[in-house]
Amino acid sequence: MKNFIEIPTNMAGIYTLSIRWVIGWTYFSAFWRRLILENKLIPEEAGYIGEKFNHFLPNALGIKPVIEYLVSNPDALQFAMVIFTIIEAIVGLFIILGLFTRLMSIGVIMLATGILLGSGWLGTTCLDEWQIGILGIAGGFTIFLTGSGKYSMDRLLIKKKIKFTNSKWFHYLGSGTIPIKNINHFSLISSIIIISITLFTNQYFHGGVWGKLHNKSVKPKVVMANIHFTDSKLKFEVFRTEGADVYGSFLIGIQILDKNAKVVKNISQLELASFPLENINNHYVAKVKPGMHSLILPLGAKADITLNLDKLFIEKGYMIKLIENPHEKK
Q: What does CATH list as the number for 221-329?
């Protein structure tokens, strides 16, 4: 008959050491890449993190109004990105060091939840952002239960018998035996909640539990709305809602078709590549703009486009066709 050895509660942090270090670096490295290796907090420069945040907008779950407010207000967005980066740096570094470990693990859970709800639908070849978010929640909760072990600042403070380490609040926010009366029930109920979030978001974003799988990050989708025609000017709104976040949708033609599907006006690829900036009214920080060979629509970008039709009369029943490379949208 085999003998089973129960793991002492003061040793639990040792067994999650690699998880703590990896999760800590995951968040601290975001700060390191964003500010030390390159400065991605400058709105006017390529790679600005605010544009990446804008990519989350079209299919975010529950937090879309917050994202839309920020990407509609560049100053508030930059401030939020700076604060977010500082929080990631503190949480990541403190988790690596094992300092106020349980408090920082709550920070990990909150950051991971934000990633999950905002960008859990993104990932061109696999469920990249969804996996990062949901594993961050589970990993953060595990570290909350175990605290940090021997190799941590919390343990060093305990060994030095710093006065506040004997208080109850330190065991909740730092390390040591967690003062929860029925830890088994707490762990079970929390784990049920986490797996429920896992299954729900997997289904919501990707159809990963039942039905047909879908991936909104593969094929670009552009939605048209608010079409107006006055004084030979045709105005309409474009909103890029799906497709890969690493490149834009390339608009190579705009056509006006009559009731018989005959082209009455054609805006060529060359014209779109030099489209007047004053005829583009961007709503967010991700901007629709002319490129070398086309009009570029980044993921999450929304803009009002104005076409001068040179006194061309448009009747009810006419259509606008957007020609993408290689897709078309009517």
A: 2.60.40
